[in-house]
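Lab notebook, bench 4. We co-purified these components, and the gel suggests they stay together. Before we commit to crystallization screens, I want a quick structural picture of the whole thing.
Request: model the full complex, all chains together.
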Amino acid sequence: MRREMNVTELQDGLRTKRFGKSILFVRAVRSTNDWAKQLAEFGAPEGTVAIADSQISGRGRLGRRWFSPVGGLWFSIILRPELRAGEVSRLVFVASLAVADALRETYKLCVETKWPNDVLVNGRKVCGILAEAKSEGEKVSFVVVGIGVNAGFRVRDKLPRGLWGIATSLEDEVDSRIEPELLFRTVLERFESFYQMLLEDGFVVLLDMWKRYAGFLGRMVEVNDGSEKVLGRAIDVGTDGSLSVRLQSGPTQRFFVGEVSLSSFS
Ligand code: BT5
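Here is the predicted assembly.
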């Protein structure tokens, strides 16, 4: 059944200091990331959230399409961190950690993170993160972190057939009714506290927390970096965000971009 967002409930009881103090909502938008980038250009403060019931042209990495039907949680948050341009990918890990924690706590699900920007439930993608920064040289002026969670809809009802085998939704995984507003508040609260930790204490501890969810580490994986596909054992993710894979042929290769899938040779 079509279920629209209850906007008042997004903010009611939200226990954050800055995240979500200003929330802009529309029924439909091309992409909340594009919208948030415009708001950031106009000077919107850190923590401003742009959220929509559905996205007409939701985006993934490298211009890939992100399907965003009504019932999902699609939002972007503006950040103005003291980070260098090369460190922006840290925010993707911090955001996925926040989502993984929120899903585990709220729905008691067995959640995994997958390099670089996915959150999985039962091996299927339930959430994707897209961080986009504006910077001059190494100086970052803002980052927009877009978070998309397949929440209150069934994959088979709303997503194209090609995704049925790789995507899942909370409604598919959980017996109780899904309230995207509650999930939104929990993710935002987690994200704010992890973001604070990142700025104050650095990335190492957070990366370790992310790795505890990273079920693919230690497993045989196939990595496709756009130019080649390689097979090997995923051995670590570094503080630069890179994935190290020990290739079947012996040496270890580091990847900064790419797609990981579990190999049947595990
Ligand atoms: C991502 O890209 O996973 C990042 C997704 C970010 C979405 C949020 S929603 C709010 C904000 N506004 C935006 O416009 N974007 C952000 P990537 O790793 O490149 O994965 C894209 C791939 O995931 C596609 O090529 C499909 O295979 C698959 N996909 C598309 N829609 C999906 C969905 N709803 N659930 C699961 N998989 C999906």
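The chain has a mean pLDDT of 95. Worth comparing against the SEC data before the next meeting. The first strand starts at residue 23 and ends at 29.
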